[in-house]
User: What shape does this take?
Amino acid sequence: MRRTLRPRQPLDLSCTLRMLRRGVGDPTMRIADGEVWRATRTPSGPASVHFGREGAEIVVSAWGPGSEWLLDRAPQLVGLDDNPQDFRPRHQFLRQMHGRHPGLRFGASGAVVEALVCSILEQKVRGIDAWRTYRRLVLRYSDPAPGPGNLMLPPDPAVLSRLG
Assistant: This one.
């Protein structure tokens, strides 16, 4: 399945989606050469998604039972629902950073449990150790993601709940 997005303002895919990656070795996500691969669990089932560019357009492809769900939410994931003109930071530092990174958007993944697991790990131990722990969790307690991206799915919440 495939969808094309046409951003009306600058959009840096790598910078925007990098916030979802847990270190360079995150087996659920890969960013290289302006392309982004991501595996996730959706309400419709597991899926993986690829974001790439064709000129000014972003081509989004998805695989797995949750592919339609991912494609429907692709604009939110890359922050296309935001209106950059509405962002008027008062603090000088924020204004400077906003000016330096005009293509940075803050998207919404809809993957609450995935975000919680990573946030909890990152609060309990140092960043790099949290990323290593997350990688070990994924490799030990998860499955390969659908599609050609050679990614792993994040652990199933039901599996994680039994580890307690």
